[in-house]
Write a structure and sequence with these properties.
- The structure is a single chain.
- By secondary structure, the chain is α+β, with helices and mostly antiparallel strands.
- It has two domains: 8-50, no CATH class; 54-205, Nucleoside Triphosphate Pyrophosphohydrolase, CATH 3.90.79.10.
- The chain contains four helices and eleven strands.
- It has helices spanning 100-112, 168-176, 183-195, 199-206, and strands spanning 11-21, 25-33, 44-50, 54-61, 66-73, 85-88, 90-93, 118-125, 136-142, 151-152, 161-167.
- The strands form two sheets. Strands 4, 5, 6, 7, 8, 9, 10 and 11 form an eight-stranded mixed sheet that branches.
- A hairpin with a 4-residue loop joins strand 4 and strand 5.
- The longest helix is centred in the middle third of the chain and has 13 residues, at 100-112.
């Protein structure tokens, strides 16, 4: 077992300097922290990409053994992946007056036309702590997938989202073939494959059947 001896008391955020403010923000942090060998570092700079917290939800129909995935264009994927239209999960940024669960349920309707029956937490994590303060709340949402599909999203946000119903076995094959290229989808699908047989008990604990 790893003994994590340091806490936030062992570092100091000396200054935050705004560099860019738009839909996202870029800031320069001046920081210092304790060293494993003893003493402190000198004060140094780190540029930080500042984002809202986000909710991400894997929609799953246990009766049909189908996951609901969405496909949309991602500009940062140009030049990184062969296809910048990615298969992803429903997701949205959290406003100050919303809970992560509320955002997951809202985005399921906006992006997939889908009502969540039960919402189960999977994990909360930082996708890229070396350069961003982004924090993700990852869920599994139990749904009835009958009649789902089509094109969704908010045109004023330039969203053009296509919904796919993917058998869980096919989703597993996509993982094995390296066809899933974003962290939240990888984590959630792997979690579901590991915990599929435990869903009835997990859903019962959350107050709904699977």
């Amino acid at each position: 077992m790893i003994d994590q001896q340091f806490t936030t008391a062992d570092c100091e955020l000396v200054e935050r300097e705004p560099l860019y403010r738009g839909f996202f923000r870029l800031e320069r942090y001046r920081v210092r922290h304790r060293l494993f060998a003893g003493g402190w570092t000198e004060t140094f700079n780190r540029e930080v990409f500042v984002r809202h917290e986000a909710s991400v939800v894997l929609l799953f129909d246990p009766a049909r053994d189908v996951v609901v995935m969405i496909e949309q264009f991602r500009a940062p994927a140009i030049g990184k992946l062969a296809n910048p239209w990615l298969l992803e999960l429903v997701a949205g940024l959290i406003d100050k007056d919303e809970s992560p669960a509320e955002v997951a349920r809202r985005e399921a309707v906006e992006e997939a036309g889908c009502e969540i029956v039960a919402l189960l937490p999977i994990a909360s994590y930082m996708p890229s702590p070396g350069g961003s303060d982004e924090f993700v709340h990852l869920f599994l949402g139990l749904v009835d997938s009958e009649g789902l599909g089509g094109i969704h999203g908010l045109p004023d946000e330039h969203e053009d989202i296509r919904v796919h119903l993917v058998p869980l076995a096919a989703a597993r094959a996509m993982l094995e073939q390296g066809r899933v290229s974003n962290a939240a989808t990888l984590i959630a699908l792997q979690w579901l494959l590991l915990n599929r047989d435990r869903l009835p008990a997990l859903a019962a604990a959350a107050g709904a059947g699977a």
